[in-house]
Inverse folding.
């Protein structure tokens, strides 16, 4: 699986990258195979407060699988990342029900 993390006018710290990679490991352990994923983080100024927009764009690794786009925003970056992956989870489960040939076995990460 390819993952690309970009900050739009924002430096993504190593700790934030690690947080995102742990989320991705969870997905692979649960056998949700992703072909590729792009996550972008954009800071914004709203009413003298810095907020963040997180955009997750992923291609599921199933035959005829859709591309999933999720956007979330808020003041706490890691909370926004978590909410983005939660929204992604709902989208994947919605599409998984339509694809009966998807394997639900666990995957061992090495």
């Amino acid at each position: 699986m390819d993952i690309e993390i970009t900050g739009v006018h924002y430096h993504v710290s190593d700790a934030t990258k690690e947080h995102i990679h742990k989320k991705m490991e969870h997905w692979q352990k649960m056998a949700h195979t992703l072909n590729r994923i792009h996550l972008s983080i954009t800071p914004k100024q709203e009413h003298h407060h810095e907020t963040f927009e997180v955009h997750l764009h992923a291609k599921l690794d199933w035959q005829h699988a859709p591309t999933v786009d999720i956007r979330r925003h808020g003041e706490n970056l890691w909370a926004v990342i978590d909410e983005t992956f939660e929204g992604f989870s709902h989208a994947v489960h919605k599409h998984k029900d339509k694809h009966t040939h998807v394997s639900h076995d666990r995957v061992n990460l090495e």
Observations:
- The radius of gyration is 15 Å.
- The chain has one domain: 2-96.
- The chain is about 35% helix and 35% strand.
